[in-house]
Amino acid sequence: MCGGERFAHHDVLWGNLISQWELSQEEAAYINVQQGTACVGCGSNVRSIALADAFLRYHESPSPLVEWVHAPLAQSLQTLEINEAGTLSGILKNIPHHRLVRYPEYDMMALDLESESFDIVLHSDTFEHISDPVKGLKECRRVLRRGGACVFTVPIIVGRLSRGRHERSPSYHGHPGCLDEAMRVHTEFGADVWEVVLSAGFSECRIVSYCYPAGIALIAVA
Ligand SMILES: [Zn+2]
């Protein structure tokens, strides 16, 4: 993000969420790193950095995001951000053709946006809150031009398969005691997360590791 190399950490998961999610100690530890280890310079956590890393790799950029936004390509790229994509949001808003729509005001399963109108779609830890993930990603694909990409993060427990929470007790992200429907978890993603990407009609799914297993991002190529 900023090129900084100093990090600070605080745990963000709470007991009830860990038990609903049935995380082992090791799994809880890496999700805590994903969400709670952050650059001292710009405040970006591992989740945001992994997303920026995948985004920059897709564009074959050797520069951190704060410098990339001044590159010639950045001036013409049509980007769509669904919900603030972590700390990328504050940096990407400086490029000319950037659009931010917010979840849940904008329904990811029925985006009120023209087809094939963006080069990049970004979202970060929003996808697990969408009731039909394939439908959500199909919409991301619809608004992308051919060869464009949806770059996103979602919490992934790498040692198990994805499971829906529809048959389980409601679980919410955000903070302990949160009952906001928009923060309700519909899918707990696992090692088969790529399957949702290909089911949605993308031609390619790249899984990019910034720091495994805490910092993983996906590039879905349309
Ligand atoms: Zn930084």
Automatic annotation (TrEMBL):
Gene3D superfamilies: Vaccinia Virus protein VP39. One of its GO terms (molecular function) is S-adenosylmethionine-dependent methyltransferase activity. Residues 95-152 form the Methyltransferase type domain. Pfam families: Methyltransf_11 (PF08241). Coiled coil: none annotated. This is Methyltransferase type 11 domain-containing protein. It comes from Nitrospira defluvii.
